[in-house]
């Protein structure tokens, strides 16, 4: 039986492209929302998920930080995709006929300067490929979409401008999620451990919580904080470190972290991508 991998968006979305490039043998399944995609993996309807976590221009994908800690899913890998944003319209459209453009909010933010230069009004849509489908259905020469070249091909749209992104190093990092935990060998040097935690409400708690990583020579690749439960008093930290959670040095760091942090949860231990 062919294994399935879910993504948020419609056929032709960048997440769809990432699925195909990651493993063309997997059956890619489109989901309307991130919640839907997560539930498909949790229920066992799909084997894997290709979920964007951050973009080199637009920053982090906020919904994922909300869903990951409580989903019970494990990160088993990461994938980096260079994003190609193209402006497209109906076959009768030109740059002169367009007055508005629609796309996912992340795509719009990554193309803000190009949109301003073309004097277009932006409209936020659910996703990039979905905006392309809408433009095809509306068949209005004044409305364009920003999506992938694959979306233009799928929905029979004309590419009006390539390379809409404001910077040339526009890359999205995806996490590969699974219900089953799959850890690399402990002696694998290119391993990442991802975890979340909350610090206790005491002076210098964060400084002390992170001190164990420094004293044990652990390289911290990423540290982010974000509010939870709608409160400015409840802060959760998301951390990527280089190393395997079962290594002695990482174990010592986590032990020290536990003295100053609550709800320490490891979200995954996985091989670092070659693109890092």
Note down, in words, how this protein is organized:
With 276 residues, the chain is an alpha/beta fold. The chain has 3 domains: 4-83 and 170-178, D-Maltodextrin-Binding Protein, domain 2 (3-Layer(aba) Sandwich), CATH 3.40.190; 86-161, Periplasmic binding protein-like II (D-Maltodextrin-Binding Protein, domain 2, 3-Layer(aba) Sandwich); 191-269, 2-Layer Sandwich (Alpha-Beta Plaits), CATH 3.30.70. Helices cover 29% and strands 36% of the residues. The chain has 9 helices and 15 strands. The chain has helices at 14-22, 34-42, 62-71, 105-110, 112-117, 128-138, 149-154, 205-215, 248-258; strands at residues 4-8, 27-31, 48-55, 59-60, 74-82, 86-89, 100-103, 121-124, 143-147, 158-161, 171-178, 191-199, 220-228, 231-242, 261-271. Strands 1, 2, 3, 4, 5 and 11 form a 6-stranded mixed sheet that branches. A hairpin with a 3-residue loop joins strand 3 and strand 4 (59-60). Helix 2 runs parallel beside helix 3 and helix 8 (205-215) packs antiparallel against helix 9 (248-258). It is elongated and about 65 Å long.
| Terminal-residue CA separation | 33 Å
CATH superfamily of the largest domain: Periplasmic binding protein-like II
Give the number of domains.
Answer: 3
Q: The biggest beta sheet, please? A: 6 strands, mixed
Number of helices: 9
CATH architecture of the largest domain: 3-Layer(aba) Sandwich
Would you list the SSEs in sequence order as H and E? EHEHEEHEEEHHEHEHEEEHEEHE
Q: What would the principal axes of the Cα set say about the shape? A: elongated
Query: Based on the structure, what is the oligomeric state of the protein chains?
Result: single chain
The whole-angstrom Rg is 21 Å
Beta-strand content: 35-45%
Poorly predicted regions are none
CATH class of the largest domain: Alpha Beta
| Helix coverage percent | 25-40%
Q: Got a strand count?
A: 15
> What's the average pLDDT?
93
CATH topology of the largest domain: D-Maltodextrin-Binding Protein, domain 2
Structural class: alpha/beta
């Amino acid at each position: 039986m062919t294994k399935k991998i879910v993504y948020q968006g419609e056929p032709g979305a960048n997440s769809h492209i990432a699925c195909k490039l990651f493993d063309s043998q997997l059956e890619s399944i489109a989901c309307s929302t991130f919640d839907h995609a997560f539930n498909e993996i949790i229920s066992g309807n799909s084997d894997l998920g290709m979920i964007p976590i951050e973009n080199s221009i637009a920053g982090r994908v906020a919904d994922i930080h909300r869903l990951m800690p409580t989903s019970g899913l494990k990160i088993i890998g990461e994938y980096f995709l260079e994003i190609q944003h193209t402006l497209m319209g109906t076959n009768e459209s030109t740059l002169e006929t367009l007055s508005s453009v629609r796309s996912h909010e992340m795509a719009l933010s990554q193309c803000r300067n190009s949109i301003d230069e073309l004097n277009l009004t932006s409209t936020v849509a659910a996703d990039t490929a979905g905006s392309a489908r809408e433009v095809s259905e509306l068949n209005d020469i004044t409305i364009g979409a920003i999506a992938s070249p694959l979306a233009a091909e799928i929905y029979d749209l004309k590419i009006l401008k390539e390379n809409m992104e404001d910077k040339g190093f526009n890359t999205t990092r995806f996490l590969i999620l699974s219900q089953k935990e799959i850890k690399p060998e402990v002696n694998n040097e290119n391993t990442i451990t991802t975890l979340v935690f909350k610090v206790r409400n005491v002076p210098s708690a964060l400084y002390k919580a992170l001190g164990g990583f420094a004293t044990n020579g652990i390289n911290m690749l990423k540290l982010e904080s974000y509010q939870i439960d709608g409160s400015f008093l409840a802060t959760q930290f998301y951390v990527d470190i280089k190393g395997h959670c079962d290594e002695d040095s990482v174990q010592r760091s986590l032990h020290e972290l536990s003295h100053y942090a609550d709800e320490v949860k490891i979200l995954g231990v996985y091989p670092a991508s070659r693109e890092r």
